[in-house]
Amino acid sequence: MAMVETMTPEQTRTPETARPDATRSEGTAGSPLVGPGEDAKVSARDCSVYYGEKHALKGVSLDIKVNEVTAFIGPSGCGKSTFLRSLNRMNDIIDGARVTGLIALDGEDIYARKVDVVQLRARVGMVFQKPNPFPKSIYENVAYGPRIHGLASTKDEMDDVVQSSLERAGLWTEVKDRLDQPGTGLSGGQQQRLCIARAIAVSPEVILMDEPCSALDPIATAKIEELIDELRQNYTIVIVTHSMQQAARVSQRTAFFHLGNLVECNDTEQIFTNPLHKLTQGYITGRFG
Amino acid sequence: MATAEQQVEMTTSQKDILSRQSRISETVNAGLKSRYRSEARFRAYGAGAIVLALVMLVLLFVTIIGKGYTAFVQTELQLTIATSGEALGIGNDRDAAALNRADYQAQIKASLRDMFPDVTGRKERRDLYGMVSDGAAYALRDALAENPALIGQKVTLQVPVASDIDMLHKGQIDRTVAEAERKVNDFQIGIYDRWVSMGTIGLHFNTALFTQGDSRQPELAGIWGAAVGSFYTLIVTLALSFPIGVAAAVYLEEFAPKNRWTDLIEVNINNLAAVPSIVFGLLGLAVFLQFFGMPRSAPVAGGLVLTLMNLPIIIIASRAALKSVPPSIREAALGLGASKLQTILHHVLPLAMPGMLTGTIIGMAHALGETAPLLMIGMVAFVVDIPMTPMDSATVLPVQIYLWADSPERAFVERTSAAIMVLLAFLVTMNAAAVLLRKKFERRW
Ligand SMILES: Nc1ncnc2c1ncn2[C@@H]1O[C@H](COP(=O)(O)OP(=O)(O)OP(=O)(O)O)[C@@H](O)[C@H]1O
Ligand SMILES: [Mg+2]
Which residues cross the membrane (chain B) (predicted)? Predict the structure, then answer.
């Protein structure tokens, strides 16, 4: 069971005054963070994650803006997934994982005692690195989320939700004739899109994607990138990727992590053309990582 | 100059590499033969083990079936009985009370006397009466109870003969042995031969074996009582051990914090699985019978004892099944906002179910064949009546086999084997059911 240190309400309400300098002392370059901006959907302040003794994420402060795609890049093991998972408290299920600092969704601390994880995860959906459809039919895969949250009361409503989710995930035409077939019988790329459809079926506000294209061919990757671009209109998206090109193509903002630190977070354009930090420059030009 | 030198150097280093490679492939080749040999040897051991196991199995089946198949038929005598109120000792009464006190035995004896008017000596008559089973009187009683109007008429019945005559008919009594050492004397053999020549004696399907409870007389003894007892015992065991075992496994695997206490519990469960079953019998005797005052010899108590014995097996198997569910499925469900309980009920349990069922069925098969702990709580009693509820006195199939194997009568030898066959049939059926169930749940797409 994960132990989570929740912050006191005072800290929750005024994160900007609680740690105004901690951010900068960590050496994060880019736009200085003063507090959650107007359009910040998710904001992290001095967020650290420990796996037992291991300090995997070190005091990250970051804003994720609404209706934007934010990309996390960085060498393997630098804590991208760790940070991503702490945004919808998936770290809670890891034994010995501990999160400190503040993470706020719409200005409210998600690690506060009164927050219901179930509700949080309905608002912050997740797509995993490895496609993980349920061993049930395609229909059931998509319908599961809406069903447990009671989002569709009749069969017709549910059919609509399933269809629109699959359509938005760009999978509808491929599977509309075999909705009762097992979701695990699809190809890897189709499975990943099914997982995306499953995630958007509960209409989350934020979608977290952990290397969604790492197992996919270029065509499937292109489809998913297109999809991400479309989804941006309605959702706030965070994507972890190892591909510089992908980050450059799909994201508006990019955050570069290194050894558990957030090194730089800025507009994607800025990061790729004129990084402020030499670590970032080294990474994007392929000198290490 | 420089290039030429480099050329030379390169060729020498290339030569080095080449010779090294050839040396390596030589070594590999030299080793290959012994590698293949050891592989072939290993395969031979495996095949040998399988053959040995099969031979044992065939031997087992051949001996059991060879000894036991005759128990499925019973020698019966076609007896024509001139029924009368006087012979039955009830005069003109035909009501239920009269039928209850009627002396059917006397009526059978009378009809045997009619059949052989030439047999007059006291001893001869006693020997003659002894050739027909007590079951004859029961058969007559049942026939008359069904239709009292038959009294006064001639009734023809198939009645079982005594087990020694049954053995004689099945050729298991050697006529050449001296009379004193034979179960059947010369006079009885003479009568038997006359029955054969009259064509009134023959083999019929042994319904008693499948419909009756235990009896001192082999020809009347059946396994139905023990089968029903086994059934009740297993039902109690299943009804208790499956839910409790699964619940315990789910709690330990999914909810319990990992600390010293749960480690201790885990070690203890593993140890309990290895405790000799008779110890559970002693525990059951002390706790269920003496402390809680449950009825002796009852399937409830037996089921409880077997539950204790089964729980560790089921818990261990269920935990393994839960562990084998990929964490990605849990993450997927939790990531969608399913609660922990929903994740377990909707995704983890269905995937773990085949493994849990396998463990349960293995445990139940164990329980079906278990004798020792049931002896401790008195299920070894001689029970004639078929148990009607799990609270009635009963015995179980393996205990019945044990009891019969212990009986001196020859006819119980074949019945022992027959009972073993029935028990094995039960086991095979259960395992087949397990496979089917697993197939049904195992839609692992
Ligand atoms: N469950 C865990 N228990 C202990 N340590 C962990 C656990 N998960 C991750 N870590 C450690 O935390 C650090 C960050 O891991 P994380 O998975 O966030 O890296 P990442 O940036 O996602 O890497 P990649 O790009 O390879 O996926 C690593 O050093 C890793 O070893
Ligand atoms: Mg990762």
Answer: 42-65, 223-252, 272-292, 298-322, 361-384, 418-437
- Which protein residue has the closest C-alpha to ligand 1 atom 30? A77
* B254 contacts on A by Cβ (under 8 Å): none
User: Which residues are CB-contacts of B427 (< 8 A; sequence separation ≥ 6)?
Assistant: B365, B368, B369
The closest residue, in CA terms, to atom 4 on ligand 1 is A51
Residue A19 has pLDDT above 50, yes or no: no
Any idea where the domains of chain B sit in the sequence?
A: 74-206, 224-441
Report the alpha-carbon distance of residue B378 to residue B371 in Å, rounded: 11
From the candidate CATH numbers 3.40.50.300, 3.30.360.10, 3.40.50.2000, 3.30.390.60, the one assigned to the domain spanning A9-21+66-78+115-284: 3.40.50.300
Q: Which residues of B touch A (CB under 8 A)?
A: 257-258, 326, 328-339, 342, 346-347, 351, 443-445
Indicate the class that CATH gives domain B224-441: mainly alpha
CB contact under 8 A, A126 and B335: yes
Range scoring the smallest mean pLDDT among A8-17, A163-172, B50-59: A8-17
Average pLDDT value over all residues in chain A: 83
* Nearest by Cα to B228 from B385, B98, B82: B385
For this complex, say whether ipTM is above 0.95: no
Question: ∠ CA A62-A64-A70 to the nearest 5 degrees?
Answer: 105
Question: Other C-beta atoms within 10 Å of B402: how many?
Answer: 18
Residues from chain B that touch A178, judged by Cβ atoms under 8 A, are: none
> Residues of A numbered 153-192 whose beta carbons fall under 8 angstroms of chain B's beta carbons: which are they?
182-185
Count the residues in chain A.
Answer: 289
Burial B52-88 (b: 16+ CB within 10 A, else e): eeeeeeeeeeeebeebbebbbbbbbbebebebeeebb
- pTM here is 0.80
What's the pLDDT tens digit per position in A25-66?
344 444 444 444 567 889 999 999 999 899 999 999 999 998
